[in-house]
Write a structure and sequence with these properties.
mainly alpha
């Protein structure tokens, strides 16, 4: 990927994400947006999984750069709607912990897979993250604003992982790729810690 494309991608993320945060002006909507935005950022499990999605997309490159994170966000929004509606989903916490383990391992081992397979993998785990966000929405906030908040925060975390993966992958080629794989391995181990209750 050319340096121009990397800069364009990073610039787009820097310009679009703050504008999403300013899109809601009513008091209840601002409160809902803030609660939704804070939810993914308030848990190590969500942060690790979202960043791993970005790193995986950066490793795969090409169309995966936007299709993999976009599929996570789309399916997560669906899961959030299910959680908001009170639809029961079994094994949500297990699914979230496994998402960190599996996505971290995929990054650690430099998974090479068709884009559709990577989209399916992240989409499967996104349903659990979305359900958790939706089910934990405070009763006092607006649902649409809350959903917009957790979608924006998720996109921000994906962008951070994507940017980190692209920068590391293009600065010190071999060492950068090794560092990305080490980050994936560390995240996967952290996922085991979350699954077992150590973290």
């Amino acid at each position: 990927m050319s340096r121009f494309r990397i800069r364009a991608l990073l610039t787009a993320a820097a310009v679009l994400l703050p504008s999403l945060a300013m899109a809601h002006t009513g008091h209840g909507e601002v409160s809902g947006f803030a609660h939704g935005f804070a939810h993914p950022l308030g848990g190590l499990d969500h942060i690790l999984a979202m960043v791993m999605v970005g790193l995986l997309a950066a490793q795969l490159g090409g169309r995966a750069l936007w299709l993999v994170p976009a599929s996570f966000v789309a399916v997560m929004a669906l899961g959030g709607g299910l959680g908001l509606a009170g639809f029961g989903l079994p094994f949500v916490e297990l699914g979230i912990a496994l998402s960190i383990i599996v996505l971290g391992a995929a990054v650690a081992f430099g998974l090479t897979a068709p884009v559709a397979a990577a989209m399916g993998l992240v989409g499967f785990f996104a349903i659990f993250h979305g359900h958790a966000h939706g089910a934990e929405m405070p009763e006092t906030v607006a649902g649409l604003a809350y959903g917009s908040g957790f979608i924006a925060a998720t996109a921000l975390l994906h962008a951070a992982g994507l940017a980190g993966g692209l920068v590391l992958g293009h600065t010190a080629e071999a060492r950068g790729a090794t560092l990305v794989k080490c980050l994936g391995g560390a995240a996967s181990l952290a996922g085991v810690g979350i699954l077992t209750g150590v973290l």
